[in-house]
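We modelled the chain as a single entity of 592 amino acids. Its sequence is:
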Amino acid sequence: MKNENILSNIKYPEELRELKPSDLLLLAKELRQEIIDVVSTKEGHLGASLGVVELTVALHYVFNTPVDQLIWDVGHQAYGHKILTGRRDKFHTNRQLNGISGFPSRKESTYDAFGTGHASTSISAALGMALANEYKGDSRTHIAVIGDASIAGGMALEALNHAGVSNANLIIVLNDNAIGIDPSVGALKHYFEKVKHQQSASENVFKALNIPYTGPIDGHDLKGLVDAFKKIKKEKGPRLIHVVTTKGKGLEPAEIDQVTYHAPGKFDRKTGIIIPKTKQPTSKFQDVFGETLVELAKQNKSIVGITPAMPTGSSMKLMMDAFPSRSFDVGIAEQHAVTLAAGMATAGLLPFCAIYSTFLQRSFDQVIHDVALQNLGVIFCLDRAGLVGQDGPTHHGVFDIPMLRVVPNIRILAPRNEIQLRNSLYTLQLELKGPVAIRYPRGYGRISDWKLPFQKIDLEKGTSIKSGEVLAVISIGTMHDNVSKAIEMVEQKCNPGQYDLGSIKPLDEKLLHQIFKKYTTIITVEDGAVFGGAGSAILEWANINGYSHSVRTIGIPDNFISHGTTLELQKEVGLDPDSIAKEILNILEIGS
């Protein structure tokens, strides 16, 4: 085989394992360039995949995948893995509608042994596979690749504790690059730094857990990786190999600014310079939250901020920069973040816990047991509520309303725009009575001049946007914008009323009575799961109050929604203005 263009001859790892060791370096170089070339124009997670190129090649070279089962924690670093496992010709469709997923997916490839998207799951999953196969007499190897940020998560520590007393054929690859999306935090981070400098090798924490330790190994030394994996492959039981990598390796700007280049958008593939996006006249909802929180913290010394490893993404970083002693990044530990907030609330502080909607799912018991049961004043700021676009089903924040509606004591708010979000945060810190969840979407709003003087508002009151006839549309949160556009599209043919719910729990019963007495037909529109969502709450209320109206609930159907742009996905599920307008006309039996 000629040394040039080796990658084009590799469709599956079987071909990779036929290469001479001397060819692997060139393959790694070509693989890294392939990732850069595609992500520079199609966008996606860049730095994580660049950092594990040599590791990816070595793993597939030494181990007999997919018989040997390889699990990538989170999975945003698996682009090289996808290219080497039969998906190179589809890689340009990565994260696009009807294209391949940005994360490992069992239904996409047999080489994706376990679907991932949330952190700290790989050791538990791999251990489960290993114990199941041990029971069946199957001797295959199971490899869990986990980052230094993810291994500090609760599930990972629980899995390590279990693995240490098992005989499972499990190899844990600790990919230590000192960063997740933001820099790693906590005591384990400092411990790994000591280990890398050989300061505490004799007191290894993994050996204390009865898990043999190898390392640290240079994660960009392909020969060293191959030799180390060949050796550790022959060993028995659970064992861990500590691999040190650089996130963004091979693209200088990505190595220097690892936070930005985690998912940089489009960039010049030769220089790495990010291509400027069209300047937006408005702000992202996360920045409205972050900037407002800093303003409030200046006025109210009881306010503290908490985030589980998402300071930049949630804009809690603004609070951390302004008030470092009152801001806490607890690492990838959602359960701890929630109960930490509960503890602070008992001591008289006012915790704002900024957590992505999809990640709040991981701390549901803590919300119930530690916060709501004790009726503690914690404000959950749920960023990325609704459809989030190309990160797909693991990241869509569509279950928070049904999940939280069943919990006593908690209030659920859905501001329709940036000003309402800002004033809701202001009002909450004035009169907090028990736990509150306030949900808002990913991305830019529509109001440029949102930083107005604070106003105290009635958080439990909905709003009549427009009076109409026969049919009323009740929108939840920022679905107000799509509903407004839809009503504009049909107003030449009919005159629907428009209302903003505002508070999902409790409901504004006075407003609902007005709506149900005035109209015969009701449509509810929300960007969350329709089963158990806000529309369901209104149906339940109507039943209790003796109304028998026709109520059509529009939202996320009872299936997991794939990846694509938010606009594409809204159209797919019927939440775009065109679909809402057609539904209004269909219900009124008016031709479009």
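As a brief sanity check on the tokenised model: The longest helix spans residues 24-42. DSSP finds 24 helices and 17 strands in the chain.
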